[in-house]
Specification:
Elements lengths: L10 H20 L1 H11 L10 H18 L1 H11 L1 H19 L5 H15 L2 H12 L5 H34 L6 H22 L12 H29 L3 H23 L4 H4 L2 H32 L3 H31 L5 H23 L5 H29 L5 H30 L3 H19 L20
Helix pairs in contact: 1-5, 1-7, 1-8, 1-9, 2-3, 2-13, 3-6, 3-10, 3-11, 3-17, 4-5, 4-7, 4-10, 4-17, 5-6, 5-7, 5-9, 6-10, 7-17, 8-9, 8-14, 8-16, 10-11, 11-17, 13-14, 13-16, 13-17, 13-18, 14-16, 15-16, 15-18, 17-18
């Protein structure tokens, strides 16, 4: 089969394929939230015996994101080494397999194990997707490309939330009243596997700029060396914590220690070869600020249905439909934010003012949502509007942040730069579902968890203020001129 390179004439085909990858990857991960909420409400499966079901549900989300988090930097590093296309396809196939098998298992340990596999597989997508977008897209449209492609995440998460009740109801009709939760995993996992196979076929007709010589077998072996170790560590932590009674919050902290250990190992072992990534002050500020970004993203993605259901005392279906507005904001926010990022560069401005302003507004709106809950607000309409507007500004800022990371990094180490960004960020994703669920069990409401989310976001704004985009490279290593101020 002939091999062709992606050019400026057909970069949109790559955008489309990666867009679809984001859709299924988002659904793979976020389906846990609505399904676990339904399990808790219907007192089914392995959650039935738990005295703290919301804390356990949050912990299930956290172990998935631990696998996702730990594979961020290795995934990007392996993409730089073996080829970003190969790692994306391998990751989607592994994530799809984990999601599909999730529907087959009805024991706590088995379910957790395959959710960890899903997280490890999907954890390789972000860094390599962002790098491919930067590689194939004309510089003048880089921000737009970042935004358009990642819109697939919002669409996937929104469709998953909207159709979760229908998929579960269909599963109940097919498998039995208390077994309906299996169907979403079968459907979403199957779609992910199909797309992963299509990517393998498509990528065989293309080649990367500097890593086309490596095969899928070599890339898979490289992935396995990291994936197997992370799988054993995460599952061992969960099993020990479950046996001796460590709280979900304590378990999440232990998982974060391993993430920090991985960061420390990376600095010590690869600091010299990756100094442009690991010792760049501005990249590191963006990395730390991204903890708040992913904290907010996965707190609301995982628990928004339950937050609305509790606050409005509504049905599962009504809550799911209202919570879907959180994802709808991304459908508009991602591409608009990316376009504004490019517009700023064309005007000779910096991307930074947009990044800081949108993040600050999002933090304030989240604070307003928390105050509304504290005041006893229970309107589905008001909650839906607040979720939508808050999500809109949140999603404005994300492609801007990604474009800035691309500006600061060289093409040959861009996968590592994006991997480190999300390794830091996913620490927030690991801790927020578990801590949110723990606070819900302790206080009887979601008020404190939403307030904490707002505080975390507003603190990240302070970090963003110290990023100096003037230090971005004026000429990227692939020859693109980058005019920044």
């Amino acid at each position: 089969m002939s091999s062709i390179a992606i050019s400026s004439r057909n970069y949109r085909s790559m955008w489309t394929l990666l867009f679809m990858g984001w859709m299924v990857s988002a659904a793979d991960r976020s389906i846990s939230g609505p399904v676990v909420t339904w399990m808790i409400e219907h007192k089914v499966a392995f959650l039935l015996a738990s005295a703290h079901p919301y804390a356990l549900g949050g912990l299930i989300g956290s172990v998935l994101f631990t696998g996702y988090m730990l594979m961020q930097f290795p995934g990007g590093y392996l993409g730089d080494k073996f080829g970003h296309r190969q790692i994306i396809a391998i990751g989607l196939l592994l994530g799809g397999l984990g999601t599909l098998v999730s529907g087959l298992l009805a024991t706590l340990i088995g379910f957790v194990a395959v959710r960890v596999i899903t997280g490890i597989g999907d954890g390789m997508f972000f860094a390599n997707d962002r790098t491919l977008v930067a590689e194939v897209t004309p510089f003048a449209k880089r921000g737009l490309g970042m935004g358009v492609v990642i819109t697939g995440f919002s669409i996937g998460a929104t469709l998953e939330t909207l159709f979760a009740p229908s998929m579960i109801n269909w599963g109940s009709a097919v498998f039995g009243a208390n077994e309906g939760w299996r169907m979403p995993f079968y459907l979403i996992g199957g779609l992910t596997l199909i797309l992963g196979g299509c990517m393998v076929l498509y990528f065989r007709r293309t080649h990367t700029l500097h890593t086309s010589k490596f095969s899928y077998a070599a890339a898979t072996f490289g992935v396995g060396k990291y994936g197997v170790v992370f799988f054993i560590i995460i599952l061992a932590i969960f099993m020990i914590a479950d046996r001796i009674g460590i709280s979900s919050w304590g378990t999440a902290v232990i998982e974060l220690v391993f993430a920090l250990a991985l960061i420390g190992f990376t600095f010590l072992n690869k600091g010299k070869g990756l100094s442009s990534v690991l010792k760049n002050k501005d990249l590191m500020l963006l990395n730390i600020a991204s903890i708040a970004v992913l904290w907010n993203l996965w707190f609301f993605t995982f628990w928004s249905v339950s937050i609305v259901s509790d606050g409005a005392h509504s049905s599962f279906l009504q809550a799911a439909l209202t919570a879907a507005f959180n994802g709808v904001g991304g459908i508009l926010g991602y591409p608009v934010g990316g376009w504004l990022s490019d517009y700023a560069i064309r005007k000779g401005w910096s991307r930074k003012p947009f990044l800081v302003s949108f993040t600050f507004i999002q933090g304030v709106l989240t604070l307003v949502f928390a105050i509304y809950l504290y005041q006893g607000g229970n309107s589905l309409l008001v909650m839906g509007v607040l979720l939508f507007i808050t999500s809109l500004f949140f999603n404005f800022m994300q492609p801007i942040q990604h474009a800035m990371v691309s500006d600061f990094s060289s093409s040959v180490q861009r996968g590592s730069a994006f991997g480190m960004l999300n390794l830091f960020g996913e620490m927030g994703a690991v801790i927020s579902p578990a801590l949110g669920g723990t606070l819900r069990d302790a206080t009887g409401s979601w008020n404190s968890a939403v307030l904490l989310d707002a505080i975390v976001v507003l603190v990240s704004v302070i970090l963003m203020l110290f990023v100096n985009q003037r230090r971005a490279m004026s000429k990227l290593s692939n020859g693109e001129a980058a005019t920044v101020s």
